[in-house]
Design goal:
Blueprint (H helix, E strand, L loop, with lengths): L1 E3 L17 H12 L2 H14 L4 H24 L6 H9 L2 H33 L6 H21 L1 H31 L19 H16 L15 H30 L2 H4 L5 H9 L5 H33 L18 H19 L5 H27 L9 E3 L3 H12 L3 H4 L3 H27 L16
Antiparallel strand pairs: 1-2
Helix pairs in contact: 1-7, 1-9, 1-12, 2-8, 3-8, 3-9, 3-14, 3-15, 4-5, 4-14, 5-6, 5-12, 5-13, 5-14, 5-17, 6-7, 6-12, 6-13, 7-9, 7-11, 7-12, 8-14, 12-13, 14-15, 14-17
InterPro entries: AA/rel_permease1 (IPR002293), APC_superfamily (IPR050367)
Protein name: Amino acid permease
Subcellular location: Cell membrane
């Protein structure tokens, strides 16, 4: 891909602190992509396609990478917080459409973080062998998300440095699984022929089974898009974002494929399918007697904690960025004078997360929790479809600095592939995912109507300016 030539770019002024360099950005992206997905989804993916569990992860990586090219053009062209909602507003200028995109992205982040917080509590209870009820688990989850809020409020440097620690821990857990897997394969304690064996459900053909599995696996690949909401806190974003984002995607894809290959080669598909702790089973089979079952809950705690922290950072920065552009109330753009963090947005997203944590934790059957990953994937793939189209619309808008260019073919491929994984007849998704997404969208519409009505009543319902430097509330 090429870069559009123009005069050198000066960093745009921002109230946020530019504290993220290339190394921290790479760890942010890798840490956001890695997480509960690979720790929990391997068995469910194998249930759809059998031994070829690595294929859906590879397809999901391809779809994510094509979409990443579109994001790279937009974030280097408009290096500001707010991400997809900002790009959509610049392309179409429709306040309602921009608000809904903003709300969907924010909801996906908060929902993911809320589920991760609940998972943190469950893993903590399991790791210490505690015999407690639902109320105690809820209290742990609530306390955890409040701790995330405090880290987020303290500052981006502290948040990203904690992300470094958590990323290294969760990465070490996956590398350990890969090393144990290679040791078992090298010792002849694995059946490598299973790696290329398709075993699809009776009611699905190969294509639909791969599509369904990819829809599941895609949840493990999301996260790269969160980084664009940190653009105003990144040093020289137009220069470093392309190579760092693509490097992060490549690293995680290699890890996912290797983990899935080791899993299906070592453990029979019947034992993997539907297994809630597939990687524990893999290590126990490869190295009997190793106390991995005692370690995995704690490694999983770090993994989900990282997901929660990064998603809450993304959600608060998204609200902050859109408040600066008049899509949400201006109060959400207030920055703490001492910490230089968007404290009002952090508080609002935390309150929403606490509500979601309470709802999920009280769901003793776990049905909603099981659907949260798929619903998050559904919402984000819908946004990705729009973003890929937005790139082409914004080609008519020129800027006075050098930026990445995704070309004309890749955005079209990205839009079509994302849409394919959204539609019910091609993705194989269960209807419950669409129901949850529909409820979230309905909440967004209600909030828009209320916001519009209040702004009209107080006489501030003015149209948003098309000038990125002069957007008013």
């Amino acid at each position: 891909m090429s870069a559009t030539q123009a005069k050198p770019e000066a960093e745009q002024p921002t109230e946020l602190k530019r504290a993220i360099g290339p190394k921290l950005l790479l760890l942010f992206i890798v840490g956001d992509i890695l997480g509960t997905g690979i720790y929990a989804l391997t068995g469910q993916v194998a249930a759809e396609v059998g031994g070829a569990a690595w294929l859906p992860f590879l397809v999901a990586f391809a779809v994510a990478t094509v979409t990443a090219f579109s994001y790279l053009e937009l974030v280097t062209k408009y290096p500001q917080a707010a991400g997809a909602a900002l790009y959509v507003h610049k392309a179409f200028g429709i306040q309602f459409f921009s608000f809904i995109v903003c709300f969907v992205v924010m909801s996906s982040g908060i929902t993911s973080a809320s589920a991760a917080s609940r998972a943190f509590a469950v893993n903590l209870v399991a790791g210490f062998g505690l015999d407690v009820g639902v109320g105690t688990v809820l209290l742990i989850a609530v306390s955890f998300i409040l701790l995330v809020m405090l880290v987020n409020f303290r500052g981006v440097t502290e948040s990203v440095m904690l992300n470094v620690v958590l990323t290294l821990v969760e990465l070490s857990g996956l590398l350990f699984v890969i090393l144990i897997g290679f040791w078992a394969i090298g010792g002849g304690n694995a059946d490598f022929s299973r790696v290329v064996a398709f075993d699809t459900p009776e009611d699905k053909g190969v294509l639909l089974a791969v599509s369904t599995a990819t829809s599941l696996a895609f949840f493990a690949m999301v996260g790269f898009e969160d980084s664009v909401n940190m653009a105003e806190e990144t040093k020289d974003p137009s220069r470093i974002f392309p190579r760092i984002m693509l490097t992060g995607l490549g690293i995680t894809a290699v890890i996912y494929v290797l983990v899935s290959i080791c899993a299906v080669a070592i453990v029979p598909i019947g034992e993997l399918a539907g297994n809630e702790t597939p990687l524990v089973t893999v290590v126990q089979t490869a190295a009997p007697g190793f106390p991995i079952s005692d370690l995995i809950p704690f490694i999983s705690m770090f993994a989900v904690a990282n997901s929660a922290l990064i998603n809450m950072m993304m959600a608060s920065r998204l609200l902050y960025g859109m408040s600066k552009h008049g899509v949400v109330p201006s109060v959400l753009g207030r920055v703490h004078p001492g910490r230089q963090t968007p404290w009002v947005s952090i508080l609002v997203t935390t309150i929403i997360a606490l509500g979601l944590i309470t709802y999920v934790s009280l769901d003793t059957e776990g049905s909603v929790v099981a659907l949260l990953g798929g619903t998050t994937s559904l919402l984000l793939l819908t946004v990705f479809t729009i973003v890929n189209g937005t790139v082409l619309v914004l080609r008519r808008d020129s800027v006075d600095h050098k930026h990445f260019n995704a070309g004309r073919v890749l955005p079209v491929i990205g839009a079509l592939s994302c849409a394919y994984l959204v539609l019910p007849w091609s993705s194989g998704r269960p209807v419950e995912q669409y129901q949850i997404a529909g409820v979230l969208l309905a909440i967004g519409v209600v909030l828009w109507v209320l916001t519009w009505g209040i702004r009209r009543m107080i006489g501030t319902n003015r149209p948003i300016s098309d000038d990125a430097d002069d957007l008013t509330t």
